[in-house]
Amino acid sequence: MRKILLTLLLSIFCFANEGNFPEDLENEFKPTNSVVFDPLSGYNRVMTSFNDSFYTYVLTPTAKGYAYVVPEVARTGINNFFTNLFFPIRFANNLLQFKFENAGKELGRFLVNTIWGFGGFMDQATNTLGMRIYREDFGQTLGYWGVGQGFHIVLPLLGPSNPRDIIGLAGDFLLSPTDRLGHNTLDYKIPQNIGQAIAIDSWYKVNEYSFNPNMYEIIKRDAIDLYPYLRDAYNQKREREINE
Description:
ABC transporter, 11 helices, two-stranded antiparallel ribbon, mainly alpha
């Protein structure tokens, strides 16, 4: 259970656009001899403490209150809608990794859920047709093409990352319909300004976290030293995703 919760937590907070819920969790976070390059460990520990305070005193209470007010069926529909909305990220990165069959299946999922699932609020592709989701992001694409992860760094609010995944976030940012920097001519972007973009992404993250708002408290309770625990788990998770 702790491994599952840690996977969900890293999925929610380590990626700007969409969560990543692996189907196979049995092989997650096994002991490894790999060493994470961590020249910024002092800064990373401070930022982990900052994020810890934010998750504990802001995000978790907010998610619990949100879950109390918003029925689960509505939150599930919202999560389905955002998952469908982030289709361009998965589709493009499957193509960039030459996973053409998976890209085609992602396109099929998008069409089914958009048309039959009322704009994506219902996941008919999974629930009725058994079509799985193929999650890929630009950080994974860079790893597929041989780009090294570089040093470990903890980002404010987003948590563990590295230079490769930060560049990956920028690539996913361009494809995401919900992200925007200032006013531009990208007509597929839903928000009209950065304030709206932050509000939409924050809503998505709180909604996603609301399905298990106690996960961070459980992980923190079980971790002897929170910072290396999250660092090593993140590194193993990304290595596994890239090598799949």
